[in-house]
Specification:
It comes from Steroidobacter agaridevorans. The protein is mainly α. The chain is built from eleven helices and no strands.
């Protein structure tokens, strides 16, 4: 059996570092469900996504966040497309999302982390990770400007709300939507974002080596309390891993099985009763459990490619983190 490649999806059939490969997979899925519906906006959105993340979109630098890189968004988008198709296959006609919402879901998923990308007139921020605490609202603003350019202006009020199912900036009970199908679409987008990253073949290494630096620059690893005193929430990449089992347990309880209503289970209709995403998540958790039990950190030895617009993105963000940590401890 062929080993799963680091930049391929859970089925090892789609290269999720390639916008064109994911676009083809999404279009093929949608054509199976809606054979006569025009999908030109999907093609356009993938082209614009690639331009944005590669530094070719007017007014923006490219993606420079090492965990939330191009692969992260593409992997999540593929999962969202699969969830949408699976959902419609398993529900009655009046509950189905249909092709227009399917396209909206894919576009929203593609740009759900656009808020990490710096604008060219921003001379204050050094890395997109500094927007961690506000990136979903920034993504909503980008999506609100983008949708009218592809003829989907009427969906702006919906898209700018449902993108918040991927973040923590707005409480879910404050996301008000008139049509229950729109809320369901938000649940599928939030589910796809979570299960894609947690099922990544290199999820554990990425948490240690790439998510922690983003946490540092984003003010999550060492937040300041009301008195201005620095609190340490994550002391290192290894500390992120130590807290990962608890994080996944909380995410599954409050989001995947909670607000999102176990939407991941719809995928069984697409994979003959199996769920490769949840299986891969369990495998990652099992492997992490063994690492934590034995303390054999060298078991986490993968060094996957990073897909940003920079030449040495991991080294660059590490330099920024070192400088940031020195400044934090210097200031007390």
């Amino acid at each position: 059996m062929q080993y799963r490649r680091s930049d391929f999806d859970v089925t090892n059939t789609v290269q999720v570092s390639s916008p064109d490969a994911v676009r083809r997979a999404v279009v093929d899925l949608f054509r199976q469900s809606w054979p006569h519906y025009p999908l030109d906006r999907v093609d356009t959105a993938f082209r614009d996504f690639e331009r944005l993340f590669n530094g070719q979109f007017p007014g923006y630098y490219g993606c420079d966040t090492v965990y939330h890189d191009l692969q992260h968004s593409l992997d999540g988008t593929l999962a969202v497309a699969r969830l949408i198709v699976s959902y419609d296959r398993t529900h009655l006609a009046d509950e189905r999302l249909g092709p227009e919402r399917a396209i909206l879901g894919v576009v929203t998923a593609l740009f759900h982390d656009a808020g990490y990308i710096r604008q060219t007139d921003d001379q204050t921020h050094r890395n997109g990770a500094e927007f961690t605490l506000s990136h979903v609202s920034r993504s909503a603003q980008f999506i609100g400007r983008y949708l009218p350019t592809i003829g989907m202006a009427e969906w702006v009020p919906v898209a700018t709300k449902i993108v918040h199912f991927t973040g923590y900036e707005v409480q879910f009970d404050q996301i008000r939507l008139d049509d229950p199908r729109d809320r369901k679409l938000g649940h599928l987008i939030g589910t796809g974002d979570l299960i894609a990253q947690m099922s990544d073949r290199c999820y554990l290494e990425k948490c240690r080596d790439r998510l922690y630096p983003e946490f540092v620059l984003g003010g999550i690893a060492m937040p300041s309390d009301s008195s201005g005193k620095t609190q340490v929430k994550y002391s290192s990449g290894l500390d992120v891993l130590r807290q990962t089992p608890g994080f996944i347990e909380d995410v599954r309880r409050s989001r995947l099985d909670g607000e999102f209503g176990s939407a991941y289970s719809y995928l069984e209709a697409l994979f003959n009763g199996r769920n490769p995403y949840m299986e891969a998540i369990e495998a990652n958790l099992s492997y992490l459990s063994e690492v934590l039990r034995t303390g054999r950190w060298p078991m986490l030895r993968r060094d996957p490619p990073c897909f940003t617009w920079e030449r040495n993105p991991v080294q660059n963000i590490r330099s920024l983190v070192i400088g940031h940590l020195k400044q934090v401890w210097k200031s007390g």
